[in-house]
Amino acid sequence: MSGNGRYLDSKGRPVVVVTGMGLVTSLGRGRDDNWKALTAGMSGIHRISRFPVDGLRTTIGGTIDFVSVEPFCAPALSERLAEMAMEEAIEQAAIGSAGDFPGPLFLAVAPVEMEWPQREELARSVPHDGPYDYHVLLEAAHRGRPDLHRRFLFGGVAETLADRFGTKGSPISLSTACASGATAIQLAVEAIRRGEADAAVSVGTDGSIQAEALIRFSLLSALSTQNDPPEAAAKPFSKNRDGFVMAEGAGALVLESLAHARARGARILGVVEGAGECADSFHRTRSNPDGHTIVGCITAALDDAGVTPADIDYINAHGTGTPENDKMECLGVQTVFADRAKDVLISSNKSMIGHTLSAAGAVEAVFTLMTIAEGRVPPTINYTIPDPAIPLDVVPNVARDARVRRAMSNSFGFGGQNVCLVFAGEPA
């Protein structure tokens, strides 16, 4: 890497830039279609048709029904969505040759677990004496159904993608709950800063809306039950919010050192200036009510970027629509941004695409970079009843033109796993 100072940040590390992006959400396939729908305030939430929902408290979601995998299982759909997003990102970056990406893969993917239809299929096809616990099923799959064994290994999705795109080194599979997509970006940034790679691809993917997952989240009282109309269910920051809406999607970003990107004449889409993470280990699902880890995460991202709250024009909120999460995010923003909190623009993509879980941090990173590039802030839709406890400018219901030089994207996951990213426009 070049020692030229213009390729280094204020801390003497290689500047990390984005040269390719890909998206798939319930709004559609590709960056352009997603951006057009998002800024128009459209919703991708609808009644679930993939499996029977009669009698369930929650009957809606952001399922991606225009992508089919047969027979359905979450790892298979997650893999296909990731493949689609990676194809678009790598094509835009125009990096490497087909099947020969010149760097590692960092993949955020949902924890993989054999689903009940496959368990039943395996129990029928591979006889076994004694109880069928999960480990027995995997061992039986290894012996008699290698197709199922590969599908339900945590690293299976990443291995397949690494083979397909020719990424270098061991592909990294990771899961940090709802912060996973942002963690994948952070790990790539750190690898490039350390000089371990000149380029990397970070992907967040999640295709896990199946009956068991929906019921589990419902039992946690985490999901919205305002099913009618579906598109009005996700209400981040609104006083009548009652939970998040499960959704599917994938986001991919090609990251490079600025020196590497400039040397090959790449078009630079933005800069990843900083990443901060904090874990509070307070509860399996809840954030610590004093908010110190959210405050610490935001502060760490700003410090890593070498900027102050005054430098942030927009925050792409985690904004799930759960009563507690939105309140805690507001507390964190108010604490760090102080008097500026009421002036900085903040909005939630999840009001339209739902919560894409393991993919969220990557999907929202792409939207954040597009916000900077387009000078247009996506709205928070379904904001009908302001919450006096959240006195923020949430860009209610209608997109807003604004100059956004630098933005933050927040990802706050179950178990207190938190990551914040700071993005800026193309460097001088």
TrEMBL record:
Q: Which GO terms describe its molecular function?
A: 3-oxoacyl-[acyl-carrier-protein] synthase activity
PROSITE patterns linked to this entry: KS3_1, KS3_2
Q: Which InterPro entries match?
A: Beta-ketoacyl_synthase, Ketoacyl_synth_AS, Ketoacyl_synth_C, Ketoacyl_synth_N, PKS_Beta-ketoAc_synthase_dom, Thiolase-like
Q: Which UniProt keywords apply?
A: Transferase
Query: Which pathway does the database say it acts in?
Result: Lipid metabolism; fatty acid biosynthesis
**Entry's Gene Ontology cellular component terms:** cytosol
Question: Looking at the keywords, is DNA-binding present?
Answer: no
Keyword Aminoacyl-tRNA synthetase attached: no
Q: Name one Pfam family in it.
A: Ketoacyl-synt_C
For biological process, the GO terms are: fatty acid biosynthetic process
**Stretches assigned to the Ketosynthase family 3 (KS3) domain:** 13-425
Organism domain of life: Bacteria
- Recorded family membership: Belongs to the thiolase-like superfamily. Beta-ketoacyl-ACP synthases family.
- Output this protein's name: 3-oxoacyl-[acyl-carrier-protein] synthase II
This chain's source organism reads Tepidamorphus gemmatus
